Amino acid sequence: MIQRYDVVIIGSGSAGTAAALACRKAGRSVAIAESRELGGTCVLRGCDPKKVLVEAARAHDAVARYAQLGIFSAAPAIDWSALMRYKRTFTQPAPAQRQRTYDDAGIVVIRGAAAFTGERTLDVGGAAVEAGDVVIATGAEPAHVASGDEALLTSETFLNLDELPSSLIFVGGGYIAFEFAHVAARAGAAVTILNQGPYALAGFDPVLTERLCAYSRTAGITIELQTRVVRVERQSGAIAVHAVKNGTDVVYRAAAGVLAAGRAPDLARLDLGQAGVASSPHGVAVNDVLRSLTNEHVYAAGDCADGGGKPLTPVASAQGEIVANNITAERKRRFDPHGLASIVYTIPPLATVGLSEDLARKRGIDLVVHEGDMSTWYSTRSTGSQTGYYRMFTDRSDGALIGGSIFGPHAEEQINVLALALRAKVPAHVLTDTLFGYPTGASDVTYFLEDS
Prior knowledge:
- By secondary structure, the protein is of the alpha/beta class.
- The chain has helices spanning 14-25, 40-44, 47-66, 80-91, 94-105, 155-158, 175-186, 206-218, 313-328, 357-362, 378-381, 411-423, 428-433, 445-448, and strands at residues 3-10, 30-34, 108-111, 114-116, 121-124, 127-136, 140-142, 167-171, 190-194, 221-224, 227-235, 238-245, 248-254, 256-259, 263-265, 279-280, 283-285, 298-300, 305-306, 341-344, 350-354, 367-373, 389-395, 401-407.
- Strands 1, 2, 3, 4, 5, 6 and 18 form a 7-stranded mixed β-sheet that branches. It has a 5-stranded antiparallel β-sheet with strand order 20-21-24-23-22, with helices on both faces.
- Strand 12 (238-245) and strand 13 form a beta hairpin.
- Helix 1 (14-25) packs parallel to helix 9.
């Protein structure tokens, strides 16, 4: 017997849930196909549980810094088992909460792995399903980069470790590597990051990533740049990572390793060919309204879509809502990533928004660069921190804010002020003239651009 729905969504993460709720609100019958626990990566295996661990590491770091304020003389240890138990108070209730959300909205959940059997038909765990439109929202999975790297932990398994290994090697130098490395180091592990390129955290300002790397080393994190991993082996309960550094073969050993070399669209099990859905290494090939280029009944949103924007939760949620609009409404919407903030939750965090200096210059923009060391600023020193730096870019012709990056204790909130300014096209001089509450991290924004 075939189950028929107006819209079938594959995946219950941020993109899938946003699309499902919006389609249902518009009066469509909606089903979600999900092979795992309801909730998706961000809620269960990514952003939310990660930030709980980061907060513990941040508190540990703060205790050490607050010794300068006369509060503590030594930092206490992180009880990893207790931290994991607390983290699970967020993740364990999430699937049932998501189920209630769907039930209240009248959304049907079909359990099982989904695969296309035709342009608008699917097999979901053995059930035959037909849809008016299908939304692919399956997210991403760890990208493999070396022989034997399946022996490494993933971000998901790291977030479920009952005990923290005494030493860890992170293969890759992106968000996952740096965020988890800062957590693990402060929890007592010996940590090494192996990054293939000359700069860590590709896509972030290299001036600030160099500063982050330097500060990370003071926290006991070893960072090896221009180190290409070629093979991973298990050896007597430990991990051996074979790499090439500056043309020389090198072997790194640790109790465990983490695969942190990026993520790839999770599409392999969908049998896209049965539906005539084209894809690229970046995801389902879509047009500017997130519809498949080769099947008008299929849309894609989030990390599995080649639709512009970074693989971040706000992008996934926004694209899910846009897809729902484009299925249910005559007036089509397009995804606009302008003003999207991106944050690496190291300690302190690194944040960026808008165009990078390199990309802006390639577009022919005559830039004014505003940059400075914030390590002696009141907002930095009052937290006990000893590092901070910013780089901002404005257009020389009209003073418009183009983009910027911040590394420091207030970066994750300061960047949101700049994101709002970019999104709303607020001139830079308006930011410098704003009477922000003082002393706050946000009030620093006026100094970032005071010579605009």
